[in-house]
Specification:
Shape of chain A: extended
Strand content of chain B: 25-35%
Distance between the termini of chain A: 35 Å
Helix content of chain B: 25-40%
Number of strands of chain A: 0
Strand order of the largest sheet of chain B: 1-2-4-8-7
Number of domains of chain A: 2
Number of strands of chain B: 10
Oligomer: heterodimer
Structural class of chain A: mainly alpha
CATH class of the largest domain in chain B: Mainly Beta
CATH superfamily of the largest domain in chain B: Immunoglobulins
Shape of chain B: elongated
Radius of gyration of chain B: 25 Å
């Protein structure tokens, strides 16, 4: 991405460059997720391509009123192009044999188990209790037990869901780091 | 996951690709402008993964999930986390253990909690049953009149491959323990075993339920992570009552204290290896 285009892009997000940077990261995370949901295997690459194109448009002097909406439009266009190119590759890809089960899988599975326990123990007590109560499989109706938890905590169910998810996300990040560290070099 | 609330229902439909395009575009725009809404969509995706992992997503929805969400770079990681986070009992017992203490090691914390777990699962405790020692032990008992373990507890498979030996030696004594508590669903239960001083070998009889892997691997580790035994390529015995794995080791291999037995299955109809059970074993002095 050209510096001029990037600067113009950031300026679209916010006049404060720090805030603009945060918004850029936030948009990028969202775009990556959308590309994943649409079925892309290269979501990061496609998200960066979307930013590049918008930056180029800005550098060419094209006015953009709503950068978020504009980015989404560009992203959809890029994905359609991506799908077309993938169709051409599909026949070749289908001929590639699927990965056999590697011995390393076993080591990774064990590392994951131990890492999970470790990561869980690092959480603050309240977070740990919440994530366990919210997600752990129980007998009976999960929705009802979550409703009960929301009443007990006196917060709306949507907020409870997001709170539990944030902890889950932390747990997942910790798990990834730990497993990567333990299985480095395999 | 029951898609009861309208927003939730819409989010699930979007994630499975079932939402009409116009509504999808609206939802995406909402995500772009509303971080909270986007985060809730991520949370719904995580719960949808849990639903899938537990086989509650069927038919077209299951296919759509596999096509759209599972087939992504992070799909396998999401599945792995989902299996761990929703596992019944395990998280709670670990969390409870760590709630009580401030030490950083989960291993030690779990075991500090062990007596309480033991009381909490009386059936599990009852299942920690010494069901037999070998005929060699009886033979030796006859010689010494020091042991009082009923012959009825001896499994057929524990018959010693020994013959009477000179008076300075004795037959190999195998102590068999049923490890029926624990596993993925009830991990946290403690298998306490008291090994007779005369036992030369230990035989752990592990109940694997309906597990259908072709081969198994068993790793026994002390709580300090020191590996006691690592047995690869084990075959389980199958009967009408279920699948059982027999693990043998020298009595001296397992020191007194707390250990964790992890059984992993691989092969058969399964594409990936999977830990089918974790069993807490405490050897009493």
């Amino acid at each position: 991405m050209m510096q001029e285009g990037f600067d113009l892009l950031l300026a679209q997000f916010d006049t404060d460059r720090n805030l603009a940077g945060q918004k850029y990261e936030s948009f990028r995370r969202k775009l990556i997720k959308f590309f994943q949901w649409w079925g892309s295997q290269d979501p990061d690459e496609l998200a960066d391509e979307a930013f590049d194109r918008v930056a180029r448009k800005l550098a060419q002097g094209e006015p953009i009123r709503d950068p978020g909406a504009y980015l989404m439009g560009v992203a959809r266009l890029i994905f359609k192009e991506h799908v077309k190119s993938q169709i051409k590759l599909r026949a070749a890809v289908e001929q590639i044999p699927k990965n056999p089960v590697a011995d390393n899988d076993l080591v990774i599975a064990e590392a994951r188990e131990e890492c999970y326990a470790n990561c869980l123990s690092k959480l603050p007590v309240e977070s740990r209790d919440l994530v366990v109560r919210y997600y752990e499989l129980q007998d009976g109706d999960k929705a009802s037990s979550r409703d009960a938890l929301s009443v007990e905590m006196d917060i709306p169910i949507a907020l409870l869901r997001v709170r539990a998810f944030r902890i889950r996300k932390k747990l997942g990040d910790c798990l990834d780091d730990c497993v990567n560290n333990r299985t480095e070099g395999l | 996951m029951s898609p009861g609330r309208p927003a939730e229902k819409q989010m699930i439909a979007y994630l499975l690709g079932e939402l009409p395009e116009a509504e999808s575009l609206r939802l995406e725009q909402s995500c772009v402008h509303d971080d909270d809404f986007f985060e809730e969509l991520l949370a719904v995706e995580a719960e949808l993964t849990d639903t899938y992992v537990h086989g509650q997503l069927v038919g077209a929805a299951r296919e759509a999930f596999e096509k759209r969400l599972l087939n992504s770079r992070d799909g396998n990681k999401a599945i792995a986390l989902s299996k761990l986070i929703t596992r019944r009992g395990t998280s709670r017992s670990r969390a409870a253990a760590t709630t009580q203490r401030n030490e950083s090691s989960w291993w030690s914390l779990s075991w500090l909690e062990a007596p309480r777990q033991f009381l909490r699962f009386p059936l599990a405790a009852a299942a920690i049953l010494i069901i037999g020692i070998s005929l060699g032990l009886l033979y030796w008992k006859q010689q010494t009149s020091q042991l009082h373990i009923p012959a009825a507890q001896l499994p057929q498979s524990a018959t010693p491959a020994t013959t009477p030996t000179p008076s300075s030696q004795r037959p190999v004594v195998i102590a068999t323990f049923v490890i029926s508590a624990g596993g993925e669903r009830e991990a946290g239960s403690v298998n306490e075993i008291r090994v007779p001083p005369v036992a030369d070998r230990l035989r752990l009889q592990v109940d694997l339920g309906n597990s259908d892997y072709k081969r198994y691997r068993a790793v026994l580790r002390m709580i300090d992570s020191k590996e006691v035994k690592n047995l690869k390529d084990l075959q389980a015995s199958r009967s009408a009552s279920g699948v059982t794995l027999f693990i043998q080791l020298a009595a001296s291999d397992l020191p007194p204290g707390d250990s964790m037995l992890t059984v992993t299955g691989f092969g058969g109809q399964h594409v990936t290896d999977e830990i089918v059970g974790r069993y807490f074993v405490r050897r009493l002095r």
